[in-house]
Specification:
With about 350 residues, the protein is of the alpha/beta class. The chain has helices at about 5, 40-50, 55-60, 65-80, 120-130, 145-155, 175-185, 200, 240-250, 285-290, 290-295; strands spanning about 10-15, 20, 25-30, 35-40, 85-90, 110-115, 135-140, 165-170, 185-190, 210-215, 215-220, 260, 265-270, 340, 345. The chain folds into two domains: about 5-90, Alpha-Beta Complex (Outer Surface Protein A, domain 3); about 110-350, TIM Barrel (Alpha-Beta Barrel). Bound molecules: iron/sulfur cluster (2 copies).
């Protein structure tokens, strides 16, 4: 334990990749690089703010009495122990991190829903390639013949997509799917409506919503339509890298740079949203991606969403703009399980906390 007298002329430097996020009930200290979070009382958020401009001795003099000094000392030791901070001679050499975010792609990710009829994937993929899209998710509310899957994947050859993830109804064709996944390295398949005893065979996976074996995943959840999307629980919290974290500070965690096609071919921000920007057969994705009206949800960050703006999870939460409590674009996700005003997760007992393990 450091004696305050020995460090009173020094400064406490909170590492630039550690972000204190103040909520209504508590503050989250988010160690983005190590993907860990710690919770402290909100009074420590204020203390950290004061420590940005004052040395440790000056801050100690601002405190009321012996008890506060003990807490202050313990807090410094705690931050040093968990390696979120160091004691330095000056803060001048440690400028704060630039929080600007940008990306070379106009569209980074896309959701394409299908049911009985196929879309024109040749047209769609050509347009997504022009937009320099990285990630594509294809959600099938039905079984998809392996030949159809291969037909779609063949259209990705020569394009610069980073990943193509399929969510399809289980049909027992794993052997053929695995062969396909070996052939197309960017592909991943998750089976939904999986009714076998997979979870019992793997006790450690008991509470997980999905289990993966390489690029093949399984979930028991029956995904019969886009309305199954939008759940926000503790398992959906994700600490991405610093770039992803700053994206979440500035932009919408789900919809930023996303374009979607619903099962009937309507182009939308997300398949569950009502507003359509036209049918994919009649208008190009590139034109819609440039539409300023279409881009508006990209910039709805958590600081301008009711409820979420008071939540300490707001910069690691994916969000949902399709299902909201008041049905408008600026109210809290209706399927969120967290109450930032009590600090309680409604479904915590049933959850496995992957982020904080
Ligand atoms: S209140 Fe908002 S920010 Fe907090 S967990 Fe729920 S959806 Fe995410
Ligand atoms: S806005 Fe909601 S429903 Fe739409 S993709 Fe995002 S999480 Fe899913």
């Amino acid at each position: 334990m450091k004696e305050l007298a020995t460090i009173q002329d020094k400064y406490l430097y909170l590492f630039a990749d550690c972000f204190p996020v103040k909520g209504h009930t508590r503050t989250m200290l988010c160690d983005v690089s190590r993907q860990k979070v710690y919770f402290v009382d909100n009074s420590y958020y204020e203390l950290l703010s004061v420590l940005k401009d004052n040395n440790i001795g000056t801050v100690a003099q601002m405190l009321d009495g012996e008890e506060d000094l003990i807490y202050f000392k313990e807090f410094i030791d705690y931050l040093l122990d968990i390696e979120l901070a160091i004691v330095v001679d000056t803060l001048d050499r440690f400028p704060s991190m630039e929080l600007e975010w940008d990306h070379p792609s106009k569209i980074i990710n896309s959701i394409i829903d299908i049911r009985d009829e196929m879309h024109d994937f040749n047209k769609i993929f050509n347009e997504l390639e022009v937009l320099a899209c990285y990630h594509i998710q294809i959600r099938a509310y039905c079984q998809l013949p392996v030949s159809k899957l291969e037909e779609i994947l063949a259209l990705t050859v020569g394009k610069n997509f980073r990943s193509v993830d399929f969510l399809i109804e289980y049909d027992g064709k794993e052997a053929e799917i695995k062969a396909l996944l070996d052939k197309y390295e960017i592909a991943q398949v998750t089976y939904h409506t999986y009714e076998m005893e997979l979870f019992d065979e793997e006790p450690e996976a008991k509470n997980r919503a999905k289990v993966y074996h390489g690029s093949l995943g399984y979930t028991k959840q029956k995904v019969s339509g886009c309305e199954g999307c939008g759940l926000v629980n503790i398992n959906s919290m994700r600490i991405r890298d610093v770039k992803g974290f700053t994206e979440n500070i500035k932009h919408n965690g789900c919809l930023n740079r996303k374009i979607s096609i619903d099962e009937t071919g309507n182009i939308k921000n997300c398949p569950s949203m009502e507003k359509s920007y036209g049918h994919v057969n009649n208008i190009s994705l590139t034109k819609i991606a440039d539409d300023t009206e279409f881009q508006k949800p990209w910039n709805i960050n958590k600081d301008n969403i009711d409820g979420c703006k008071d939540c300490e999870y707001r910069y690691i939460c994916t969000d949902c703009r399709a299902y909201t409590t008041d049905g408008d674009l600026h109210s809290k996700p209706a399927k969120c399980q967290y109450d930032p005003y009590t600090g309680v997760w409604a479904d915590k007992e049933e959850s496995v906390n992957t982020v904080f393990a």
